[in-house]
Records
---
Amino acid sequence: MVGKGQSIHGQWGSRWAFILAATGSAVGLGNIWRFPYVVGDHGGAAFVLVYLACIAVIGVPVMMAEILIGRRGRQSPINTMRTLPAEAGATPAWQLLGWMGVLAGFIVLSFYSVVAGWALAYVPFTASGMFTGADTATVEAAFTGLLDSPGQLLLWHTVFIALTGYVVSRGVRSGIEKAVRVLMPLLFLLLLLMVGYGMGAGAFAEAVAFLFTPDFSALTGESVLIAMGQAFFTLSLGLGAIMAYGSYLSSRSSIPRNAGIIAGADTVIALIAGLAIFPIVFAAGLDPQEGAGLVFVALSYGFGQMPMGMLFGTLFFVLLSFAAWTSAISITEPATAYLVESRGWRRPRATFAVAGTAWFVGIGSILSFNYWSDMQILGMNFMGVMEYLSTSVMLPLGGMLMALFAGWVLPRSATVQELGFKNQGWYMAWLFLVRYVVPVAILIVFARALGLF
């Protein structure tokens, strides 16, 4: 039985190693960079409620499906989606789902690394006191100057990709597991320090009201699509990362319990990040609808006006860099595992090929802010297209197909065995969600976003 085996890449040392790694995958730029600015852009608390509903009704069931598919296949996503359909007597076209996940991972990693490079660049910027007492024009000029400098962007993009590749090249136990055991506790500690700072120096009550007092008139059909895409992006669903991590999970470990802990931790950290960021934004009288530059422009200015802002601003960008690193590691793993399995390459060579390709594609995102700034596709620059295509199209589509595969194609005996529910009612509820609710919800949101109704 495939599900009883073990991946050739090894196995997690414990279920908590898997939880830390998967939570590290989930907790990244999606929580600390993207979540605050999409909340700001789409009305605050009302968007948060839609996002939480997407996590509970769509995200958790799909995460369970992705983990069980990975553990059942015990291979890279591409090879798992070749093997399991064949065993179930289904069409080999399902392999395209594995390829789509790896492609989405490439796209995300390419622009993700560029944004993570911004975070790395801002560590010395903030630590040097560049923003202490600076006015908004100075802070905006620093960010604009960084984006206008392809050389600087390329340097930090390269550093980040190299750090990510180093960890992945060392393997599951010696690389990924060791890294997340150190990085995740540090990340959480830094985040709590930031919340404490916001409570003491920022407009904390105003931030709480913004995050938890909903105004549903601010919601649009696009907001719902963005919320669903954010749920997939922040949980790393549809990228093959959770499937790959699931393939290294012990057959004795509970998938439903693990998925619940990971989704819960990810959601709590996203909300804590909001409570760390928005007090600074509001205390400085800034607009939460700053967009993608929220943490780099608005927060840098806010820290510059506050007591001990240089120290806590520096800690914030270290936190952002750590969060991005844990996620990038997971995104790099599926394609690396495939090359090791199918090409017989040693892991360092496979990692270099994957990271190098993502690095090259990322140059397009770098150039979209300077030399290609006038080039627009559907009203977006190159990086905007990459982000929209991956987070709002490929990730939800991949999640929908995973739900359909787990619910309709895999034999019920296989899903019952992998999920291990002691209560039949919980299993039937999961099966109903992945068979009907998840696909229909995603299709409705896609149709609304396309203006079909």
---
Amino acid sequence: MAKLVIIDDEAAILELMTKLCKAAGHQVFGCTTGIDGIAAIRSNQPDLVIVDLRIGDVNGLDLVSMCKDQFPNTAVIMVTGHGSVETAVEAMRLGAFDYLTNPFDLGDLIKTVNQALQRNGIAAATPTSIPSSTLRSASASKLIGHSDAIQRIFDIVRRVANNDSPVLLEGEFGVGKHMVARALHEASRRSNSPYKELQCSAMPEDALETELFGQTAIFNRVSGGTIHLAEINQLPARIQAQLNTFLDEAQSKKAWGSGSSAVDFRLVVSSTTSLEDAVKAGKFREDLYYKLSVVPLKIPPLRERRVDVRPLVEHFLKDLADRTDAKAKTIDTSAIEFLEKYNWPGNVSELRNAIERACAFAENDRVRPSDLPAKVTQQIEIPTPSTSEGITKLPIGSTLDDFIKGQERAFIQETLKYNSGSREKTASMLGVSIATLYRKMGLNVERKTTM
């Protein structure tokens, strides 16, 4: 059993980390202020300190420096946000063992704690009895969806999980690339080792270079786990060259069995734009692209798999309840219908935020359309002869293609009425083939043409 001091001014996060570390068998002193944290460190001389970078009364970096100077045998783990990764790298330069980027999976916390303790000669602990409400829902990092596209991704993840080949994930912002990367890690033999994610666009070039290739580089800290380099398309040209060389050397050491000098990791990279197009445009190294894209995976936007909206909503409602120790809220069918019609330019991330907002406004534990963001429920009225009211309503966020398809369908229906339901006459009048008419109507070509 090790002694830990955890300092975080957000009481809910402090409680979660404290419960988890206690469940792992450690003695934990939790503090919500820097002053109390410093007092706890001095009185208990802990084996490990976990500290948030931004505490109201104390700078996290100053606390790292204090531990380094006054308690050199105490390991420090820094907790930071994505926008402060550069500062977290500075904390490691000052002596911190590692950092966690918030929000982080609590399973990664205990793995990082074990690594830090093992470095100081303290045996790793294994959680024995963790309350279900302590951890985020285990499915929070898994893929959610019923669409054919997501099912294909499920299948690929299953097949390549234990293959150490690099994986390239491509897709728009918010489609869930980090969830796929996490699923790959959790399905693999590396699942008991750390998973670390680095946003390549989140820090200046010199800090990024240090984090990738410095003395305390992320590749050295992952220790048999998985590294996800997000937004790899933003990697500066000089760093691309260094990464290309590093991967060559790592492969060579592995091939020649260089023992402890060979770093062990699974590499997953992701990009919001096509890396192949970036290569053609001269913005990304071709040799590095081929190294990273051994297993390419394209994740479609949410608007192309609307059937996944409902299971995602149900998952987010349960996950939010688990994280807040509350009863899961239900949602009206009419609210689901609005969510399924909206275009989701921010993809899964935007949907998650919309559900969290709706839960904050919901009364009587039920989410209604009035609880959803206005842009989701706001609609445009378009004159059309296809309805009895003479208008068609489309949600704000619908694409021009959505509108055109709707107008096409309305025109086809009116032409069918004119031709007494004859699809052959309608196709001829519209100047399209019968197959095209069936496709635009959403029917199978094999179906009979009588109405």
---
Amino acid sequence: MFFLPVSLTLFILFLLLIPVLFAVAPALAFAKLGLNPLCGYGFFIVCLLGSSVNIPVHRERIAYTASMDDITALFHSLLGIRFPRITERVIAVNLGGAIFPGLLSLYLLWRVPLSLALLATAVTSTAAYALSKPVKGVGVVMPAFVPPVVSAIAAVVIAREHAPQVAYISGVMGTLIGADLLRLHQIKKLEAAFLSIGGAGVFDGIYLVGLVSVLLA
């Protein structure tokens, strides 16, 4: 038999409150950062919309033919379709997953001790690098809750007085450094024609940093 650890009424109430918690979270997060809570909604919506925008920053010449799986190879042999030969790779920066969070992190950096922010960022970068991995055809994948939880714990331990600000800074910058920049040389070996810093599997972690890390701190 199955028994709920709480009463059925309380369990249903909790499910109904989940959308409310997600609606309140951005305002509460910005309030803890010492900023206008109303700006929190706008910022997180802009980041969410900006996740679909990638700004190219570098182009390089490459030369390889796209790989084929079994089904694609069958169509290739039957229809005689030639696979394109990729000659250029574009490296871009995601607007909602790197630029906007990075700008907010730089703004907050002026309001906290630099040494504490750098130390917490180093901890988060190490964790992000250790728990992320490049996957062919996908990019960098990483458990989404790793950056916010690690950055929150590091901020509470290292910078108690400035924990919310340091949690956000270390969560965003640590994820970008550990999961994207330090693995850029490995990502290039995936034979992808397009690479996005702060996009794909890394964006989820960075987006949650703004909510979970600050709330935990």
